[in-house]
Amino acid sequence: MKEVREEILRLENVKFTYDKKKMAIDDISLSLYSGEKVAIIGENGSGKSSLFLVSNMINKISSGNIYLKNKKLSNKRSEINKLREVVGIVFQNPNDQIIASNVYEEISFGPMNLDLSLDEVKNRVEKSMETLGILDYRDRATQYLSGGEQKKVTIASILSMNPEIILFDEPMASLDMKSSRELEESLNNLSDKNIALLVSTHDINFVWRWSQRVILMDRGKIIIDCNTEDFFEKEEMLSKYSIDMPILYSVGKKLNMNPLPKTIEEIL
C-alpha cells in the first residue's frame, strides 16, 4: 500500500518582491508533506533562499496565500509564531543563527520561549542533542566549535521546537568531507522521525543519492518539481539549465542497470 503523507505546508500563487521592484519569488505554488526528503537546486539568485524566507514568513509575501495544515494564514503574530514552530530554518552560516555563548543555552532558547515547564524544556533539549549525537557538547562554548559542530547545534536548536518541516539552506557549504557525511547521516535521522526536509544544494550527487523529490528553480520560478528518478530522466531540459548528471546515475545508465544505483555498493 502506498504511504499517505499529510500535507503540512502549502503555498499558492505566492509572489515576493524586494524594494517593490525585484521579483524574487514569482507566482510559486508548492506543497510540502510529512516525512519527505526534497532537494531544491538552481543557480545562485534563482530564488531558493527567498523561498525559504517566505515559507515561514520571515519575509512577508507580496501576494498569494500560505496554508498550514489546510488553514490559510494571516499576518497575525500568533499565526506567524505557530508557523515558525512547525517550519524551522537552518541557515547556511551558523553565525547568523547562534545567539548564545553556551551550547545548552543555545538549544534551549526556543523552547524557553514557548511557555513550557523546565522539565519539558530539558527533555526537548536532551532529545535533540541525542538525535544529533552531541550530548557531550552540552557545556561547550559555541564560539569554539568547528563549522560542522556549529551546524549540528543549529539543527538541534531547531529540532528542540518539535518542527514538522525543516528547511536547510545549503547545509554542506564550507564543510569538510567528514562533516558533510555526518550531516547527511543527521538528515537521515531526522527523516526517520517523519520530519519533512527541504534542502537547497549544489551537490548533484547528493541530490541523486538522498532525495525523493527534486525542485529546480530559476529566476524566482519553479521550473521542475517531480520525484528524483523522473527529474534526471529530463536530461535535455536539464542541460539547458547546466545541470550535470550524477555520477552513479550516468554509470548505471551505461551499464543498463535497473534500478539505477544510488550508492557505490549497489554497483559492486
UniProtKB/TrEMBL annotation:
InterPro entries, sorted: AAA+_ATPase (IPR003593), ABC_transporter-like_ATP-bd (IPR003439), ABC_transporter-like_CS (IPR017871), ABC_transpr_CbiO/EcfA_su (IPR015856), ECF_ABC_transporter_ATP-bd (IPR050095), P-loop_NTPase (IPR027417)
Pfam families attached to this UniProt entry: ABC_tran (PF00005)
Main location (coarse class): membrane
Ranges of residues in domain ABC transporter: 9-244
Keyword annotations: ATP-binding, Cell membrane, Membrane, Nucleotide-binding, Translocase, Transport
Places the protein is found: Cell membrane
CC per GO annotation: ATP-binding cassette (ABC) transporter complex
Protein family (similarity comment): Belongs to the ABC transporter superfamily.
Protein name: ABC transporter domain-containing protein
